[in-house]
Structure formats: structure tokens, C-alpha cells
Design a protein that fits this description.
With about 80 residues, the chain is mostly beta strands. It has no helices and five strands. About 0% of the residues lie in helices and about 40% in strands. Strands 1, 2, 3, 4 and 5 form a five-stranded mixed β-sheet that branches. A hairpin with a 2-residue loop joins strand 3 and strand 4.
């Protein structure tokens, strides 16, 4: 049995789709916002955005808005409420 962790699939934000749910991805984008209370960030690339749970990996050092970040993790679906 291999001691190496599963490798992450390099994926652009535009290519994140339902078919990748459950897969480990490596995604880069610009940090749009960080919510320290919920431990989430939003990364963007153009008009595409992704909500990322970073509770186990980030601390208060996240300050530079629109700085480039790379995240690695398993893609999960979450329920969202549409705001009108």
C-alpha cells in the first residue's frame, strides 16, 4: 500500500463541474473575500467564483484582497440560497 497521498487534479475554475464532485482538485484563483467567522473564502477567475472552506488550513494572515491563492481539496456540493 502506497504511503503517498492522492494526487490532486489541476483544474481551472471554469472547468469545475458536477462530474468532479468527490474528486481531489487543485484550483487557483484570486482571493475575493475571507470570512473569519465561517472560515470560508471566495476565489474568482474572471466571472467564475468558488466558495472554499478553509477552516482547517488558514489563519488570520489572509489579508490581501485579489492576491493569488491555490487550494487543494475534495470538491463537495453545498446547498446555497439564491438572493434576489
Amino acid at each position: 500500500m502506497s504511503q503517498l497521498p492522492d494526487s490532486a487534479l489541476p483544474t481551472s475554475l471554469a472547468d469545475v463541474k458536477d462530474s468532479l464532485v468527490g474528486r481531489k482538485l487543485r484550483v487557483a484563483g484570486r482571493l475575493l473575500s475571507y470570512d473569519a467567522i465561517t472560515g470560508t473564502i471566495i476565489i474568482v477567475d474572471g466571472t467564475i467564483g468558488l466558495l472554499v472552506d478553509v477552516t482547517s488550513c488558514l489563519d488570520s494572515w489572509v489579508r490581501e484582497r485579489l492576491g493569488t491563492v491555490m487550494v487543494i481539496g475534495d470538491l463537495q456540493r453545498t446547498a446555497v440560497r439564491q438572493i434576489q
